[in-house]
Design brief:
The chain is mostly beta strands and about 230 residues long. About 5% of the residues lie in helices and about 40% in strands. Strands 1, 3, 4, 6, 8, 10, 12, 14, 15, 17, 18, 20 and 21 form a 13-stranded mixed sheet that branches. The protein has an 8-stranded parallel sheet with strand order 2-5-7-9-11-13-16-19, with no helix packed on it. The N and C termini lie far apart (about 50 Å).
Amino acid sequence: MSVTDYGHNNQVDISRTSACSGGACITIYGNNNHVVIGEETVISAGLIEMRNHDSVIRIGANCSLAGSLRCRARNTSIRIGDRTTTMMAHLSLHEAGTITIGEDCMFSGDIMMDVSDMHSILDTETGARLNPALDIEIGDHVWLAQGVRIMKGALIGQHSVIGSRSMVMGAIPAHSLAVGVPARVVRSGITWDRRRLNTEKAHEDETTEAFHSPLGGMPAGEKSGGPNTTTEQ
């Protein structure tokens, strides 16, 4: 991995078992920054850039990341948990703050997030700024589909799924499927799996379990008083 340091007192810790491809590089322009890349992590077609001071980018183990990580203000932090994957995600901090990504998250392409609006909105009477920066936190095992936008202050609970082209502007509870602009929960009590599971096989497993259960010793259809429509595979 190409590392270019134009500053002073910066530290870059890259595991010997990590790898890079597609011209991935780290560029640091400020001072007192720290970059950590964990074991077995692969950075592809990406840029890690720090144009600031006193900031941290920490990437866990066994990640596969493509996209960009940019810290552009003092006292910023990006933390990505183990086993997280991104196809093309762009994380940036134009003001002081933190973006925290949990473990085993899966981000599709064209994902963007920033803790800042990048420009100020002011009250005309007082001159007070109305849009301060806010941290972003995404829990473990969260799936962001294609084109999702994560706005400042977003909080997404673990095991949730955010639908394609949605915009998250607030809190999404754990185990939720949320879609739209702004994203709204359309179903609760869900989780997800990276595998493309065979739904027919899942139904067969449920039927087999019911047959051997202590509730009746007969197929599920007969227990409910209806015909048994289960077909053996």
